[in-house]
């Protein structure tokens, strides 16, 4: 394997690819990708060009500090929030990220220090429904509290987007991003820097870290981006196309979630692609490739501080894309689930969404979908799904739930940290990943919906068709209207789940939806059923 990676890197160097990529050559991915690539390579120079933003960002930060706005909320999906999440977690500064349509999770943010809240509305396209909904909800909440939204909303978007126009009309602070950078490559652009700086992270150091590796990107030797991209691309071509991302020993917090979007959306298309697997222990399957961030054992190790990591992984993804023969800058299948969601909402009008009849009900969990083998209960359903995963395939769990709800679980006042952690784990739907992973030698992934729709969702629909899908939705206790729209967040969330389910079943993939009629009891029941064999 190491030999194949080195050979691929040598060949790429002999063809002059590193120099061409570093100088922004848009022809590297073939004629059909050229037009898109021509407007998508700006990320290569962000360590230098983003410095122009620093005075503007510093002004914004000083103004927010002067007004004591210390609760920073970021509304943004995919590339518009994943990088700030890692940057702030690594810098250990608080940032509330809204990349959900879960009413409970949005209400938690809304009810937290509104009088000291500043909201960054970040959307490259300016048309993303989740972000648009969050903006509407916060505008209303500020007005209801007698606060002028123009004093509290900062917009980050591309020049010319509908959101820019709206922000101008509304008198919002606007920071424009470099339009020649795609969403998932935008970590070092205004999308990564503005919310992170407001939250208190040192973004100049981040740019410095990236600038340190920048000169290496044109090199044929000693180029970490070339080596990583050649290793990922050569491994995938040889059938090792499940990329396990390990960061347990790293000082960088949460980078695998950002890498997941970059790799899954960039490579998962035309029936090809590399599946990132986050949070899993290596299972020894023949198609696994283990990449370690910082220190630890794996097939690949990527060293360096966060700013450098961003640039190296972006460059590596562009290189892997060339080796795989795909366009690493488009996301052709993401729109499909969005279109399904819009159609479902429009067709239902004010009536109920077409959820269908449950196949079975097991306590607080309803099971929707078609399955072979006549399952009698939830335990049977999970066993059948695991058995359906093909030899080269994977199981994807997709939870359209509140990802912070587990922390609401009551714990005894004198509980130790370990006891608290056990209580959270027992209430966390994400625990299902590990419980099912021990029952199969195939990778099991976990994504929060709709967040993953802007990440691995592309791979699920555009990559190799060997996934098996387990959706989880939940009853809504308290819903949130979206001002100016005919739907609530809860309705949008369910329509998103159904829209994606339709896209998956339409491809003939096995997919079921588990609906928790009582969320807390349903998660406990589900985790219990997953333990039974
Ligand atoms: O920044 P936005 O235009 O709102 O886009 C947010 C996300 O939306 C889409 O789903 C794309 O597939 C992602 O790559 C992007 O990061």
Describe this structure in words.
The protein is of the alpha/beta class and 533 residues long. The chain has three domains: 2-21 and 220-324, Rossmann fold; 46-208, Rossmann fold, CATH 3.40.50.10490; 334-531, Rossmann fold. 44% of the residues lie in helices and 14% in strands. It is built from 21 helices and 15 strands. Strand 14, helix 20 and strand 15 (511-516) form a beta-alpha-beta unit. It is globular. 6-O-phosphono-alpha-D-glucopyranose binds at residues 77-80, 123-125, 128, 131, 183-184, 265, 331, 334, 454. InterPro entries: G6P_Isomerase (IPR001672), SIS_dom_sf (IPR046348). Pathway: Carbohydrate degradation; glycolysis; D-glyceraldehyde 3-phosphate and glycerone phosphate from D-glucose: step 2/4.
**Overall geometric form:** globular
CATH architecture field of the largest domain: 3-Layer(aba) Sandwich
> How many domains make up the 3D coordinates?
3
Q: Helix/strand/pairing class, anyone?
A: alpha/beta
Strand order of the largest sheet: 10-11-15-14-12-13
Number of helical segments? Answer: 21
Family: Belongs to the GPI family.
GO cellular component, one term: cytosol
Enzyme class: isomerase
Catalytic activity: alpha-D-glucose 6-phosphate = beta-D-fructose 6-phosphate
List keywords for this structure.
533 residues, alpha/beta, Rossmann fold, five-stranded parallel sheet, 21 helices, 15 strands, binds 6-O-phosphono-alpha-D-glucopyranose
Q: How is this structure best summarized?
A:
It is an enzyme of class 5 (isomerase). By secondary structure, the chain is an alpha/beta fold.
């Amino acid at each position: 394997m190491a030999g194949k990676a080195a050979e691929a890197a040598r060949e790429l160097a002999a063809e002059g690819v590193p120099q061409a990529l570093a100088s922004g050559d848009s022809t590297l991915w073939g004629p059909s990708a050229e037009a898109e690539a021509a407007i998508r390579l700006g990320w290569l120079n962000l360590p230098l060009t983003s410095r122009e933003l620093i005075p503007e960002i510093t002004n914004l930060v000083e103004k927010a500090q002067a007004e004591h706005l210390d609760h920073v909320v970021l509304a943004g999906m995919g590339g518009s929030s994943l990088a700030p999440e890692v940057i702030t977690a690594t810098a250990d500064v608080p940032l509330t990220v809204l990349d959900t349509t879960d009413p409970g999770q949005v209400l938690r943010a809304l009810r937290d220090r509104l009088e000291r809240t500043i909201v960054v509305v970040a959307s490259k396209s300016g048309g993303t429904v989740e972000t648009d909904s969050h903006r509407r909800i916060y505008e209303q909440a500020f007005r209801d509290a007698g606060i002028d939204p123009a004093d509290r909303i900062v917009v980050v978007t591309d020049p010319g987007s509908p959101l820019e126009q709206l922000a101008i009309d509304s008198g919002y602070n606007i920071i424009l991003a470099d339009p020649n950078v795609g969403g998932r490559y935008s970590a070092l652009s205004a999308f990564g820097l503005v919310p992170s700086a407001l939250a208190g992270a040192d973004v100049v150091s981040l740019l410095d870290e990236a600038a340190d590796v920048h000169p290496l990107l044109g090199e044929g030797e000693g180029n970490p981006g070339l080596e990583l991209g050649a290793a990922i691309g050569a491994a995938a071509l040889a059938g090792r196309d499940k990329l396990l991302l390990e960061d347990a020993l790293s000082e960088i917090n949460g980078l695998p979630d950002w890498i997941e979007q970059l790799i899954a959306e960039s490579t998962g298309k035309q029936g090809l692609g590399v599946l990132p697997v986050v949070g899993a222990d290596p299972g020894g399957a023949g198609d696994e490739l283990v990449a370690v961030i910082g220190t630890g054992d794996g097939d690949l190790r990527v060293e360096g501080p966060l700013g450098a990591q961003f640039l190296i992984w972006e460059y590596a993804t562009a290189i892997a894309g060339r080796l795989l023969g795909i366009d690493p800058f488009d996301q052709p299948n993401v729109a499909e689930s969005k279109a399904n969601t819009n159609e479902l909402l429009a067709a239902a009008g004010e009536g109920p969404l077409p959820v269908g009849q449950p196949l079975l009900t097991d306590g607080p969990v309803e099971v929707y979908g078609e399955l072979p083998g006549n399952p009698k209960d939830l335990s049977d359903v999970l066993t059948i799904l695991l058995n359906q995963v093909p030899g080269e395939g994977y199981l994807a769990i997709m939870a359209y739930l509140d990802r912070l709800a587990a922390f609401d679980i009551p714990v005894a006042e004198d509980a130790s940290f370990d006891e608290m952690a056990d209580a959270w784990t027992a209430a966390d739907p994400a625990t299902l990943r590990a419980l099912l992973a021990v029952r199969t030698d195939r990778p099991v992934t976990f994504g929060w919906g709709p967040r993953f729709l802007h990440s691995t969702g592309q791979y699920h629909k555009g990559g190799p068709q060997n996934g098996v899908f387990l959706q989880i939705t939940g009853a809504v206790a308290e819903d949130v209207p979206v001002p100016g729209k005919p739907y609530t967040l809860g309705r949008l969330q369910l329509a998103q789940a159904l829209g994606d389910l339709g896209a998956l079943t339409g491809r003939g993939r096995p997919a079921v939806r588990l609906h928790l009629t009582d969320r807390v009891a349903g998660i406990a029941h589900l985790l219990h059923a997953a333990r039974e064999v």
